[in-house]
Amino acid sequence: MHISKEFLVKALGFSRSAIDRKVKQRKHLSVDQAERVLGLVRLIGQVEAMVVQSGQADGFDPARWTGQWLQQPTPALGGRCPAEFSDTILGQELLSALLARMQSGAYA
Q1: Cα–Cα distance, 96 to 102 (Å, whole number)
Q2: Residue 46, C-beta contacts closer than 8 angstroms, at least 6 positions apart
């Protein structure tokens, strides 16, 4: 995704120390944490599908694009960054709907 670990941890609403501890102890994420990670993976997949459907997928890195998009203020979100909405399933659904509107041209 070409974003820092700190940014990703914050965007998903995780505690850096708790995540580091889980890694060190080889523990699994909680169900809620895993759902947030999977939600982010789904957003990346949605971006990839959008680009494939457009017929211009050559050389496109959907994870990188998504990582950059998460950090950019977006008019459709009142000037807030999409990452501010990625820490909940509901927020990720909002981002998915925004991507769909962008694809349809309803709101870029």
Answers
A1: 10
A2: 96, 99, 100
Q: Give the pTM.
A: 0.90
User: Could you give the CA distance from residue 47 to residue 53 in angstroms, rounded to a whole number?
Assistant: 10
Beta bridge partners, 74, equal 80
> Do the beta carbons of residue 33 and residue 12 sit within 8 Å?
yes
Burial of 84 (0-12, 13-18, 19+ CB in 10 A): middle
Model confidence pLDDT, tens digit, residues 32-82:
999 999 999 999 999 999 999 999 889 999 999 999 999 999 999 999 999
Phi, psi of 80, rounded to the nearest 5 degrees = -85, 160
Largest CA distance in the chain: 46
Are 102 and 49 contacting, i.e. CB atoms less than 8 angstroms apart? Answer: no
